[in-house]
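*** Protein under study ***
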Amino acid sequence: MGRYDDLLYQLIKNGLRNSFQKVFKREIDELIMKHPGVPTDYIEFLEEIGYGDIGEEYFMLYGSLVDAEVIYGKSKCDGLKDIVFLGDYYNGHSIGFSKKGEWEMVEVDNNQDITFLNITFEGFIKNKLDEYLGMRYFR
């Protein structure tokens, strides 16, 4: 039984499973080698579910961790050098991990202000799906 079996069930039940693509084992191994200490719950999500979109233009989860300079450009990311990003909201707000200390989850807004989310990746991704499904049913 996997960590995300309940989430997988919700994705299938709500017709969202095809929005995600599996990540190959080789890519996961490369990710772990490049980013030692990356949280296990994030790795297990990539293994069990993959990457993709929660809803149309709601939240996009990348297939790997992305350095700040890829998103913001090398000249504009000095204050973000210790952050790797895992997804975004399509509106300039990105979600990632601060590699300082305990790999805490952070949100970075359009002004590059950093907010520590005080939540695990597992809690975060389950909340995103719950939020999206709640919005979808109450439209």
